[in-house]
Amino acid sequence: MERDIPQSALDIYGAQSALEPAGFGAAIVFDLTFAMTVAFGTVFVGVMLLVWLAWRRDRPARHWWVWSGGIVLPVVSILVLMVASTAALVAMTRSDDTALVVDVTGHQFWWDLVYDPDGLAVRDANEMVLPAGRPVTLRLQSADVIHSFWVPSLSGKMDMIPGRVNTLTLTATEPGRYRGQCAEFCGLSHPRMAFEVVVLEPAAFDRWLIRTAGEARDAARPELLRGRQVFIDYGCAACHAVRGVATGARLGPDLTRVGARGSLGAGMWRMNQGNLAGWIADVGDMKPGAKMPSYNHLSGPDLRAVSAWLVSLK
Amino acid sequence: MTDARHDPPPAVPPRSDAYETAPKGARETAPKGARDKDFEQVWATPDGARALSSVSHRVVGKRFLITGFIFFLIAGILALLVRLQLMVPENTFLDSETYNQVFTMHGTIMMFLFAIPMLEGFAVYLIPLMIGARDLVFPRLGAFGYYCYLFGGIIVLSSFVFDAAPAGGWFMYVPLSTSQYTQGLSADFWLIGITLAEIASVTAAIEIIASILCSRAPGMSLTRMPILMWYLLVTAFMIAIGFPPLIIGSILLEAERLLGLPFFDITQGGDPLLWQHLFWLFGHPEVYIIFLPGAGMVATMLPVFVGKPLFGYGFAVAAVVTMGFLSFGLWAHHMFATGLPILSLSLFSAASTMVAVPTGVQIFCFIATLSLARPRLTVPMYFILGFLFIFVLGGLTGVMLAAVPFNLQAHDSYFVVAHLHYVLIGGFVFPMFGALYYWVPHFTGRMMSERLGKWAFWLMFSGFNLAFFMMHLTGLRGMPRRIATYPADLGWDRLNMLSTFGAFVLAAGIAVFIVDFFRHRHAGPKAGHDPWGAATLEWLHTPVTPDYNFRAIPEIRSREPLWDQPELTDRPATEIAGALRDNADHRRETIGCDPVTGAPVQILRLPHPTWFPLIAALGLAVLFGATLASLYWLSGVGAGIALAGFTGWVWEPSDSGAVRDSGIRDGLELPVNVVNRHSHLYVGNMAMILILFALFASLLFAGMYLWNTQPLSADATQRPARIYALLTLGLAVVVFTLSWMISRSVLLGGPLMLTAMLNVLLAVIVAGVALTLTLALVPVDPWSSAFAAVGWTLAAYIGALLAVMLYWTLFNALRKLVGAVGPGQGLPDFLLGSFGKAAAVMTAITAAAFLFAGTPQ
Amino acid sequence: MTALVVHVARPITLWALHFIAIYALISAACAPRALLDVQVMRAVAGLVTLGAGLLVLIWLFAGSRRLRHCAASAPERPLATAAVWSATISALAILLNLWPVAILAGCSG
């Protein structure tokens, strides 16, 4: 199902770039950007040429220079630009009532997701999975300060402001992995508040959603049971929910499919057992300002066990 | 001596370092009599430590320039730290906390402690020299402003020492900057220190408006004043209207942090976007406030190096005036991603593109001027060409950003970082360096080095473009702003490395400038008379202008006086005929004029060196600093010192009522310090009232915004007590009437006793208004909702106005009581009348709002 | 000459008032309080713009005529020029203020 889609968007050139559009909105903006760059680049070269010509010229200038350069040229440019950009804006922001709805809530410094909140209400975190070719309505909110949701490859950004629900309609067009990042300064670990977006073929997405709605599946090996026990004994369930193991907690990211995510720490490090163990033991060092305490009092075996269990949750 | 400047342009351009080492004796040495020596005594700047009491505009202007440049260097070093950290991905040179402080302070210092004070310094220094005045019209206000800026800047910088440097970005968005998410004092250092420093901006605005309008040389009508004066006049009006929203916003945020008032708390009907609106209502005009003086300096220097007057003076005036207005309609383009309705976004998008029109007019006026003759390629001219290249590029990326869809990708990315640096460095810093090379001979009497200047320029130009051009691409490749580090291999690594390299090349260029500056103080060639061949009055003397600027104030008949009026250049400057050569009263004075025609209307008395501005500023610094440290008893002491300083400042004998020979043709006699609408004090008072209305309007905006966007909470707020609101309204009408009567009494020459009684009556009514206003609000709990908190803040603002009025009216009464006021000396009451009417209007509006706000419960 | 200063300032002041009106109308129609129906708002905005536009065009034509009769070397000529250009720029700006209301059907496009 995830053939040809990379394990993680980290280290992929162009996974987080407005110049590599893979979404409807990003494609529109890319065309607009290209057109404006050519147009205004020409204007710039023209103006500099004019400066050079004026420098070399010895006859007095005429009023029509200022008239055409100062009024006519800008007005014509403005009109063309306003028509193009208004058309683009309307196209990009057109909402679709049949779209899939995802509630995205920004926290310092992670992302809470709920797919189909009025239906299946599948909760997840930090890695968004989307269907290709289908519009998705993101309802963006914040639990604390202002954040901003931005996946440059797919679409423009939208702020997440406490007390408001801002809507962003997004249509990914190319299956693949992309990276997004919080684009509004939100505190100490603002640079470490990123996320990945996995775009699947529509049928694959439907299957994924149904599967994820169910209980967590760890690889049912007996040695992982110790890890699950550590998770419960050390009170991780007070903040983290894992469907089928510990439910109800919403203070921290939902970990039901944490092992399937391409990265941890909100899009920052490759998801593997070693990084997970390092995270649990010393999150305060990896991500200053994160609200999760460091669990460096876990014994080595316990730490290995719990991280092995978590990485098996797919 | 023929004036070679009006001959046809030579076949071979003259040497680019076109100053003459004129033989001594040709221009300046005229015999000095006893009268001249007395005149010089009156104008001499005190030396040693007593120089701190000098209020002369040249001293204060240089203080602004030097202090501003020092802050520029500090903020520049912070920028280099940022670039070092971002040079490679996942760098650990600076930890996140430190990085956030560094970029916050870089922006804060550059915007508030460098750019604005630097342009103020040029304005304060150049305005009297260019309009033919001996000083600004409110020298003490200028000195006071400088000290507030200095102390405010020190408070902000000291945050580093206390390990509490602000780390929330120069824009301090809420809720991140509220007490809930930023504990400790860092945000308070910003809010309190910057507000103190902003006082300088506001006082400078008043001074610039009053000076340009009221103290021009005889005959210098609005159309004969240098174009820079138009630029600075518009800038000053923009400051007067544009700074108040920030002042109000800062007060609201500080009140939230200190007192817990819920302006931005969504659970209490507050709105984080309220801060953004207030901030950007200031923030957008702010960048045009920074740009316009830069463009004005280009408009001044460019014609000199072409040898012809600026092309299209009338076009440029229209462009500058319209740009000043239009820049106030763009603010929400900083908020395109906040979820505002599409209709709103489009309005601001359209308005933002519109500003390209007046900008284009100015640029094309400059280009057309270039074509009038073969320009000389001097060092300042290099910087002007640099301005044209960099600013036009930045302006065009600005038009791109005005398109909402593009903005939604580029906002908060490095594309914006590129754009803002292109327009600010291109539009202000490059002209500033050109201006420094250009006017340094005026400050020091020596020329800086052509060779080093060209090195400085090319290093700065190439370094700047390398550093910042890349960032357009970096941003479009997805790199957000304000991030302490970034992962490798996303396509940003090489670009960041190049940007860092460019930044250091830019810094090297600035270093060359600094070296040249210090070197030239003792090794630079002495500047001759008018080393650049300029046309404006500041170059009248050689090579360093004396303290008094003009021995006699000449009559002006042209926009380029040094080019068109031979009587100004064919004799030693001290022998030029003009007004006020005599100094019978041994007082500093200059000519006051009609604001439009420039016809002389008064003799304007100016203050001698005094300590009161410093004392008042020190008092304010103690007040602000102690509040920051939560030592409220000390705040009270500071307030007392400030009050004492202000009282000493304004308690002085009046000069009005006398008439003197002005020394203008045919023994024209002029009144001293007129008591009517021509008075510079009246104009300054009006400028201050404009600022007060802008502050009031910002508070009203906050209230209306919350009423409109948080209707449930606003409607659930307790309504103020109607009976007291009605009483307040009624008393406001009485205040208006009494104020009007006081003004009329002065204008009609009424008996002093009558005015004194009106003063006392006004005091009583004002106290009554304060009482009824408070009683109206007693039922309303300011912590109950953001809307209620704004209501209380409005009342507190009115209360402050009423307190000032109370003090003022009693002060006036006291002065009459002790016999310090003679006939025809009613200026303080005349001004009080205007102030009282304005305060009454604001009180009435507030009371009317209280009648209908909220719901009775 | 004082009159000419007013002639420079009044068109752009009119723009400022027009902008405030349009901004207020959009806020009244599109904010949570929804004081005004959107179609009513668009009609009002159109009327306001019609009025302001006519006024500024009158000023523009009057200013052009004054400029034509103004001697090239008259001291007030720069202000007469500035008055015409101010009216021109203000007229464009007033029209542009109406753009979103004219083009978009409602608050959300």
Describe what you observe in this structure.
The complex is a heterotrimer of chains A (314), B (857) and C (109). By secondary structure, chain A is α+β, with helices and mostly antiparallel strands. Chain A has six helices and twelve strands. In chain A, the strands form four sheets. A five-stranded mixed beta sheet of chain A has the order 3-2-1-5-8. In chain A, α1 runs antiparallel to α2. Chain A is elongated and about 90 Å long. Chain B has 24 helices and four strands. In chain B, 63% of the residues lie in helices and 2% in strands. In chain B, the strands form two sheets. In chain B, strands 1-2 form a two-stranded antiparallel sheet. A two-stranded antiparallel ribbon of chain B has the order 3-4. Chain B is mostly helical. Chain C is an all-alpha fold. Chain C has three helices and no strands. Chain C has helices at 2-30, 38-68, 77-103. Chains in contact: A-B, A-C, B-C. The interface between A and C is small, with 10 and 10 residues.
Spell out the key features of this protein.
heterotrimer; B: two-stranded antiparallel sheet; disordered N terminus; C: 109 residues; mainly alpha; 3 helices
Blueprint of the fold:
The complex is a heterotrimer of chains A (314), B (857) and C (109).
Chain A: H1 24-56, H2 63-93, E1 100-107, E2 110-115, E3 122-125, E4 127-131, E5 135-142, E6 147-149, E7 158-160, E8 166-171, E9 176-181, E10 194-200, H3 202-213, H4 223-233, E11 263-264, E12 269-270, H5 273-286, H6 300-311
Parallel strand pairs in A: 1-5, 4-10
Antiparallel strand pairs in A: 1-2, 2-3, 5-8, 6-7, 9-10, 11-12
Helix pairs in contact in A: 1-2, 4-6, 5-6
Chain B: H1 34-43, H2 57-86, H3 96-131, H4 139-161, H5 186-214, H6 227-259, H7 272-306, H8 313-326, H9 342-354, H10 356-370, H11 379-402, H12 404-410, H13 414-444, H14 450-476, H15 493-523, H16 561-564, E1 589-593, E2 600-605, H17 612-628, H18 632-650, E3 659-661, E4 669-671, H19 680-709, H20 711-716, H21 722-747, H22 752-777, H23 786-817, H24 827-852
Antiparallel strand pairs in B: 1-2, 3-4
Helix pairs in contact in B: 2-3, 2-4, 2-15, 3-4, 3-5, 3-7, 4-5, 4-17, 5-6, 5-17, 5-19, 6-7, 6-8, 6-19, 7-10, 7-11, 7-13, 8-10, 11-13, 11-14, 13-14, 14-15, 17-18, 19-23, 19-24, 21-22, 21-24, 22-23, 23-24
Chain C: H1 2-30, H2 38-68, H3 77-103
